[in-house]
Every structure is written in C-alpha cells, then in structure tokens.
C-alpha cells in the first residue's frame, strides 16, 4: 500500500485564506487521512499577500488539525497532485454557478493525471457568501474583514495596512 494513501490536495489561491476555506479543510480532514492545502503560486499575478505569508497564515489557521499540512506549488495542479501521490483533489462549491467551471476543471485534471478524482464539498450556509475577492475588496476600501477570515489573517492584514 503506498505511503501516501488517503492524501487529498485542496488547491487554491487562498489570497487571503477565509473562514470558508477553513470550513472546507476542517470537513475534509474528518473525511480523509491527510489533507494538504496547496497554494498555487503565480509570480506574474499581483495579489494581496505573497505566497510565503499565505503559507504561514494558513499553517497557523490549521494547526489544530494534525493531519493537515500546507505547501506551495507552481504550474499544473494535476502534475503536482500526481507527483505527491494524491488520491483526489478537494474543491469547495458555494453556489450552482461554481459547478460549471469546476466540472470542466475536474474533467481536465482527471484526463491529465490518469483518472485523478475531484471531490466537491458543499459550502456551509454560514460561509457560502465569503470569497477571497470580496475580502480583498472590503480590505482595500478600508473595511473590517474580521468576520470573514481567521484571526491570524485579520491581524496580518491590519499590520499591512498600518505599514
Ligand atoms: P481558486 O483561485 O483556485 O478558485 P480560491 O482560493 O478562490 O482559489 O478557492 C479555493 C477553493 O476554495 C475553491 O474550490 C473554492 O470554490 C473554495 N472556496 C472558496 N471560498 C469558499 C467558501 N466560502 N466556502 C466553501 N468553499 C470555498
């Protein structure tokens, strides 16, 4: 039996990591042996937080779960997941519209990575309207994002604002 049996990868930008992301990780951690939150790094895309800060903040937010780890990757998620020996990808679905894009991605990743499955986890109603895009917009316009992100992310964003 391969050592990586039961590893699932939750890929995303996580810029920033929200309570919606955390909810998906917590639920996936109960369903699977090991969960890796994999931050897709795209150097040409200017985001809010650099990848190393995202990694540090996610690590803090998930530290209460011993079967969850955090990593960064570049390029195709299908390639990365194959290299890691993952059994599946995890993606969250917030609303029906998400499925249109996600189904295409799941199909492509399955084709590219020899039948790699994507497992969809439905967003919990209390978090379904939270997205990194909305958090970034609220933050950039000076709003309080503490209701949408883990405490460590909120603190980091406030520090950044003060700098
Ligand atoms: P990407 O750019 O790859 O979509 P995101 O960081 O925006 O990366 O999202 C990563 C994953 O988390 C996606 O599967 C997305 O659907 C899911 N997700 C984002 N926000 C929520 C939420 N509030 N509830 C559940 N899943 C979510």
Overview of this protein structure:
- The chain is α/β, with parallel strands linked by helices and 163 residues long.
- It is 43% helix and 19% strand.
- It has 6 helices and 5 strands; from the N terminus they run βαβαβαβαβαα.
- A 5-stranded parallel β-sheet has the order 3-2-1-4-5, with helices on both faces.
- Helix 1 (19-31) links the parallel strand 1 (7-12) and strand 2.
- Helix 2 packs antiparallel against helix 6.
- The chain starts with 6 loop residues before the first strand and ends with a helix.
- It binds adenosine-5'-diphosphate.
Relevant terms:
5 strands; 6 helices; alpha/beta; 163 residues; five-stranded parallel β-sheet; binds adenosine-5'-diphosphate
- Can you count the beta strands? 5
What oligomeric state is this?
A: single chain
Mean pLDDT level: 94
Instruction: Summarize the main sheet.
Output: 5 strands, parallel
Shape: globular
Query: How many DSSP helices?
Result: 6
Q: How are strands sequenced across the largest beta sheet?
A: 3-2-1-4-5
Radius of gyration in whole Å, from Cα?
Answer: 16 Å
- Uncertain regions spanning at least 5 consecutive residues: none
Order of helices and strands: EHEHEHEHEHH
Helical fraction equals 40-55%
Task: Give the DSSP E fraction (strand runs of 2 or more residues).
Answer: 15-25%
Protein structure class? alpha/beta
Which cofactor or ligand species appear?
Answer: adenosine-5'-diphosphate
- How far apart the termini lie comes to 50 Å
């Amino acid at each position: 039996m391969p050592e990586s049996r039961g590893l699932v990868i939750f890929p995303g930008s996580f810029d920033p990591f929200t309570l919606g992301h955390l909810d998906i990780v917590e639920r996936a951690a109960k369903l699977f042996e090991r969960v890796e939150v994999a931050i897709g790094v795209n150097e040409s895309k200017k985001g809010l937080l650099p990848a190393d800060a995202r990694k540090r903040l996610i690590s803090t937010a998930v530290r209460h779960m011993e079967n969850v780890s955090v990593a960064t990757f570049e390029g195709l998620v299908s390639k990365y997941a194959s290299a890691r020996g993952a059994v599946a990808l995890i993606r969250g679905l917030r609303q029906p519209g998400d499925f249109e894009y996600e189904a295409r991605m799941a199909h492509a990743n399955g084709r590219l990575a020899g039948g790699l499955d994507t497992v969809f986890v439905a967003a919990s109603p209390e978090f379904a309207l939270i997205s990194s895009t909305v958090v970034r917009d609220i933050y950039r316009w000076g709003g309080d994002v503490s209701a949408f992100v883990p405490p460590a992310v909120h603190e980091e964003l406030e520090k950044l604002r003060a700098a």
